[in-house]
Design a protein that fits this description.
Protein name: N-acetyltransferase
CATH architecture of the largest domain: 3-Layer(aba) Sandwich
Number of strands: 11
Number of domains: 2
Radius of gyration: 19 Å
Order of helices and strands: EHEHEHEEHHEEEHEEHE
CATH topology of the largest domain: Aminopeptidase
Structural class: alpha+beta
Strand content: 25-35%
Number of helices: 7
InterPro entries: Acyl_CoA_acyltransferase
Length: about 230
């Protein structure tokens, strides 16, 4: 397969079709997505004209804002009733993952059933646990959520519904960031949907500032696909 088509097996297991990321917007790359059936992700500069993308069947799904924060600029918020720990019950973490992620780009994709988008998040959280990339968040001794990361990137923040809107997110997230920085990173980065205003405001309060943005397009090439 052409070197600008990258297979994404972590998505294939959820959607039961071939899944790819297209790494170029050249005419040759776009034409290749017409030849190989499956679901495609394409990330482009927002200033790039989408005309040729639309012509090849790609459709817009999201804009990702990618802020960064140096360890010197991280704002720490404390709450004596909160605790971050590597000790947790996997089943409890999985139950939180089933209820809190509803605004991802695959949830916004009209070609992907919501149940499959939910499954993608649940499997991702299980992978993160297996790779020791999750910390549990506790409030007054009860499990309130989790914080997931990879190297210098903040990946996911999941807080149980009964603990949301109680002013805990800043304390939980800043504790997670501080724990992550202690691993030796000079700065942290994350990726947030432009539609997720709550998360944008949260990370801005923590000291994160905009680095750049990316527009995300999807495509479903139904050729030779059965039942999709």
């Amino acid at each position: 397969m052409e070197n600008y088509i990258k297979e994404t097996p972590w998505d294939r297991r959820n959607f039961n079709i071939n899944t790819y990321e297209l790494t170029s917007t050249t005419d040759e790359a776009l034409k290749s997505s017409d030849k190989h059936p499956g679901h495609y992700t394409l990330k482009v500069d927002p200033l790039e004209s989408p005309k040729k993308l639309l012509r090849h069947g790609f459709y817009y799904v999201d804009t990702l804002i990618e802020p960064v924060c140096t360890k010197e600029k991280l704002n720490l918020f404390s709450n004596e009733d909160t605790l971050i720990s590597k000790e947790y019950n996997s089943k409890d973490i999985n139950e939180i993952a089933e209820e809190v992620f509803t605004h991802g780009r695959f949830h916004r994709d009209f070609n992907i059933p919501s149940s499959m988008a939910d499954l993608r998040y649940r499997n991702w959280v299980k992978d993160l646990q297996a790779n020791d990339q999750i910390c549990a968040l506790y409030y007054k001794g009860g499990l309130a959520g989790f914080y997931a990361y990879e190297n210098d990137k903040v990946l996911l923040l999941g807080i149980k519904k009964e603990y949301q809107n109680k002013g805990l997110a800043k304390a939980f997230t800043s504790q997670g960031c501080y724990t992550q920085l202690k691993l030796g990173h000079d700065q942290l980065r994350t990726s947030i949907s432009a539609a997720n205003v709550t998360s944008l405001n949260l990370f801005y309060a923590l000291g994160f500032r905009l680095s750049h943005t990316i527009d995300v397009y999807h495509k479903l090439n139904r050729t030779a696909l059965n039942g999709v």
